[in-house]
Amino acid sequence: MLKAGVLGAGHLGKIHLRLLNQSNKYDLIGFYDADPENAKRVVEEFGYRYFDSIDDLIEAVDVVDIVTPTLSHYDCAKLAIKKGKHIFIEKPITNTVEEAETIRTLVAEHGVKGQVGHVERFNPAFIGVKDQIKNPMFIECHRLAEFNPRGTDVPVVLDLMIHDIDIILSVVQSPVKHISASGVSVVSETPDIANARIEFKNGCVANLTASRISLKNMRKTRFFQKDAYISVDFLEKKCEVVKMKDAPENPGDFDMILQNAEGIKKQIYFDNPEIANNNAILDELEAFADAINNNTKPIVTLHDGTEALRVANMIINQF
C-alpha cells in the first residue's frame, strides 16, 4: 500500500481523507491544514493524524494529495516533488500556466508521477460513452450551479467550466484555432456566468456555458458527429446515444426512418450503454495508485491539466 498524506482539510480535502482512509490501495498517514482550528475539528471528528508542518507530512508519505486553495498548489507540489514524492493535485493544476510547466519539468527531473483531479473523466456516464465519441464536430456544454460562496475567489471558468474544457480536450484531437468568450460578474468580484466558443483546427466547434448563479443545477454535454448524437448528463450520471445507419430495404413497423433531400434513407436507433455506478473521486485516486504501482501513464496527466488551464486562461483573457 502506498503511504498517502493530504494537504488541505477543507470541504473537498475531508472527502479525500475519507476515501483514502477506506481505500485498500493507500495507507492514509495523516494531513496538514494551514488553519489549526479547522485541523483540530477534523482530528476530533474523524481521528486522522494531524501534522503541524507540511515538511513533516511530506517526509512521512509516498503520495502527496494536494487539496489546498489553487494559489498554493505550486508551492506545495514543488516541495513534494523535490523530496521525491508522487503528487495528486486538484484542478486547476496551478494558478498560472508557467507554474504548471515548471511542475511538469520537476516531475520529469525527479522521476515521480503526477495526476490532476479532473474528476469528470471518471464520471460513469462519460466512461460509458467515451469510446463512442469519435471525431465530434459540434459540442455543447451547460454546467450550471446554484450560488455557493465556496469557490467564488476565482472566475467561474476556473471553478466550473474547466471540467468541460478538460473533457473536450480529451476527445477533440486537434489544436485550438480561435476562442471567443464573454463573462459577467453578478454577485462576485470575478465572472459568475460565462460563455465560450472554442474553434479547433479540424473544424470542430465547442460552445460552453458555465454559471454559478442559476436556480437549478445542470451538467450536460452533447456531442454531434457523423451519424451520431451523444448526450452525457454528468449530474444524473446518465447518457444517451442516438445513431444512424443505412435503412434496411424492408424496414419494420417500428423502425424510425429518415429520408434526406437526396432521397437517402437512414434508420435511427439507440445504442445506450450500461452505466456502472461508482465513486468518481475514489476511482481517480485509485487509478493514480495503479499508475504508480504499474509504472504507467496516469489517466489525467499533468500535461492534460496544463492544457485545460491554458485554454481556461485564454477564455478569461477575452473578458
UniProtKB/TrEMBL annotation:
Any Pfam family the entry gives: GFO_IDH_MocA_C3
Superkingdom, natural source: Bacteria
Sequence ranges assigned to domain Gfo/Idh/MocA-like oxidoreductase N-terminal in this UniProt record: 3-118
Family annotation (Gene3D superfamilies): Dihydrodipicolinate Reductase, domain 2, NAD(P)-binding Rossmann-like Domain
GFO/IDH/MocA-like oxidoreductase domain mapped to chain residues: 156-216
Transmembrane segments: none
Any one Gene Ontology molecular-function term assigned to this protein's record: nucleotide binding
Name by which UniProt lists this protein: Oxidoreductase, Gfo/Idh/MocA family
